[in-house]
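Q: My labmate handed me this sequence with no annotations at all. I'd like to see what the chain might look like in three dimensions before we decide whether it's worth expressing. Could you predict it?
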Amino acid sequence: MTVLNGIAAHVHRVTQRICQLLLGLIFIGQLVVVILRYVFGMGFIELQDAVAYSFATLVVLGLPVAQALDVHVRVDVLRANQTRQTQALFDRVGIIALLIPVFGLTIYWVWPDIVYSWSIREASAETGGLPGLFLVKSMLPLACALMILQGVAQLFSLGKEPARD
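A: Here is what I predict for the chain of 165 residues:
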């Protein structure tokens, strides 16, 4: 295993644990919001924002986790009839021609918005909502960078079984 694959595997484990934690927070937080609203007739904007922030973070961090586990959706309907070498070739082409350029361009396109969001320390649009929306928005370029890291690491390890946790 190369150093890059080791780094990618470690980052994957950390990201996967964060996603698991976020999923638990979303479940518990949404349950509390519903109970407060429909049993006690109370609203809790901060908790609603926390659930929304957690969900947004989970969605974007779930992308590199799915990539690392090789459980993402494939559009290639011919894959079932391909040899392992042909599948690896298609995966290499997809990583080089699509994954790296698309996520690289996404970082490039969203960067000015992220910088602006940080400059004004953007908060929730809701009155009394949570601060820190700029941190949530920063998850998109981070997830893109993690996708590129996973893609490059996979280029060096295609043909081997993915590391499943």
